[in-house]
Amino acid sequence: MRVLGIEGTAWAASAAVYDGEGDSESEDESVFIETDAYQPESGGIHPREAAEHMGEHVPEVVQTALAHARDLAAEDPTHEDGDPPVDCVTFSRGPGLGPCLRIVGTAARSVAQRFDVPLVGVNHMVAHLEIGRHQSGFASPVCLNASGANAHILGYRNGRYRVLGETMDTGVGNAIDKFTRHVGWSHPGGPKVENAAKDGEYLDLPYVVKGMDFSFSGIMSAAKQAYDRGEEIEDVCFALQENVFAMLTEVAERALSLTGSDELVLGGGVGQNERLREMLGEMCAQRGAQFYAPDNRFLRDNAGMIAVLGAKMYAAGDTLAIEDSQIDSNFRPDQVPVTWRSGESVSQPVTDEDEVQGAEATVTIEPDRVVKRRVPRSYRHPALDERLRIERTREETRLTSEARQHGVPTPAIYDVDPQEATIVFERVGETDLRGALTEQRVRNVGRHLATIHEAGFVHGDPTTRNVRVAGLGNDAADDRTYLIDFGLGYYTDDVEDYAMDLHVFAQSLAGTADDPETLLEAAEDAYRAVGDEAVLAHLREVEGRGRYQ
Ligand SMILES: C[C@@H](O)[C@H](NC(=O)OP(=O)(O)OC[C@H]1O[C@@H](n2cnc3c(N)ncnc32)[C@H](O)[C@@H]1O)C(=O)O
Ligand SMILES: Nc1ncnc2c1ncn2[C@@H]1O[C@H](COP(=O)(O)OP(=O)(O)OP(=O)(O)O)[C@@H](O)[C@H]1O
Ligand SMILES: [Fe+2]
């Protein structure tokens, strides 16, 4: 089949023709892409200027792509005179800048009507991840989307791509671009930071990971301040890349660990950064996972990825009536019913082994005790790596004990060596909550989180893997449900931090449970009984935040 794709969510006026079968990548498929990039004269992307750019250049790139489709059709023995040159028209429906999307939508509808072929509306972020899955042939990978306006980790489960973690403020590319605007560099800033970083040395900047979520605002203000007080720009760029990309790599590793997957694909314009790809590749190699990043022409915004996903959707019969084809500038990837792929979920069955490779540590399980060592992560800058390992070991020791004092079941600590980043714990539970989800256990977690919040600290990473359960096969309500792995915890009285703990737990349920909504309600009920209602209200706010900034 031949499929026309049209992209124009922000800066790339782009059209493409995919020629192939639509299933996994084959040697005789081809993707032709024609793009005209909008380059702001000053500052960042101006929505009005960007829309003008689309108005002017989308028709041109579409004409070029259609000319290519006609050439392909002329060589195609099954194509008859009078047949349309393409079988369907696919377009980016969102997310993106409204004025730009409307132009793309109009163009797509008019081409589809002219040739009397079906129309397919594609989620741009799902296209960013599907292109890597298509080309790699991975069955059910964890996907890291690192683009301008977004940054999230996704995994497929039960008919949707679930957001396992994401930025709590701006997209990663936008964060970098804001810094470069501050220092007076032209848009886009990403490649300039990459270049300058080549001659830089490390300096300390914030590093903010909360479970599988992360935020860039603190590190970006610190980077601007460092520049303003006269630090070398090369050093600021270097440290910025080291911290921001280590954060993304860490959450990607956390997602691999949480789901048990051993495949990672990268998508989005920031994925063009070699340092980011190097870190991800190294992390995957170290844990025996496979890593795939598409070529640059498929990472930055391009209509090729739209055409490839569009082809899959078309083959699955997932087309749109013209009257239902309105754009959606806040279109989230988890809103898309996934019609085009088989049901294999990212999450694999849990196995209890003697040695567990967690997201950060290697845990050796002995009959009565476990030894947890935060092994150096070679993808991270050594100074950052040492700082994180020592800090987290200290915090974990302190908060594990403190939680116990408040009546929350946690393992006893037998020994600790911060310099070696090693803790020896009592062995608790029979399995992780991930493999033994029940309403009662989830309720216990809700109550435990409320208890530690009332005591003034957060867990920082309360996923279903960081809860151990005992009393399997025993339906008694008082199962022991232990919280472990307090390494990302800290003292705080900010309701936002408490809500984030619950949000992290909710996301991990979404990533591992078949029925996350009921379980989550149970957890919230139990939380409400001990904790502060304001935290739950704030959780609603966190969940409702539009991330398209
Ligand atoms: C919704 C859609 O419009 C949006 N698209 C988008 O952000 O364009 P994309 O091509 O995926 O990414 C552009 C970003 O990618 C960054 N970028 C490009 N080359 C880079 C590099 N070598 N290193 C770091 N960042 C880079 C740019 O600075 C810019 O912020 C998105 O996907 O979020
Ligand atoms: N005290 C314990 N008793 C029994 N099992 C444990 C204990 N501590 C850890 N484990 C097992 O080891 C796994 C990894 O431990 P932990 O979560 O502390 O490491 P981690 O590297 O920080 O992991 P992650 O960051 O992926 O959650 C746990 O999911 C659990 O199965
Ligand atoms: Fe994009």
Task: Summarize this structure briefly.
It comes from Halorientalis brevis. The protein has helices at residues 47-75, 98-115, 124-136, 172-182, 190-197, 217-228, 233-259, 274-286, 296-299, 303-315, 382-405, 439-454, 495-512, 516-530, 533-544; strands at 2-7, 12-19, 30-37, 88-94, 119-123, 142-146, 151-157, 160-166, 209-210, 213-214, 263-267, 290-292, 355-357, 362-365, 369-373, 413-417, 422-426, 431-432, 457-458, 467-469, 481-483, 490-491. With 549 residues, the chain is an alpha+beta fold.
What global shape is seen? globular
Unique bound compounds? threonylcarbamoyladenylate, adenosine-5'-triphosphate, fe (ii) ion
Oligomerization state: single chain
Q: For the record, what CATH class of the largest domain applies?
A: Alpha Beta
The number of helical elements comes to: 15
Helix percentage: 40-55%
Q: What's the gyration radius in Å? A: 24 Å
Spans where pLDDT lies below 50 across 5 or more residues: none
- Total domain modules: 4
Q: Count all strands and give the number.
A: 22
Our measurement of the CA-to-CA distance between the termini, rounded to an integer number of angstroms, reads 36 Å
Placed side by side, the strands forming the largest sheet appear as 3-2-1-4-5
Mean pLDDT: 93
User: Which structural class do you get from the secondary structure elements?
Assistant: alpha+beta
CATH architecture of the largest domain: 2-Layer Sandwich
CATH superfamily of the largest domain, by name, is ATPase, nucleotide binding domain
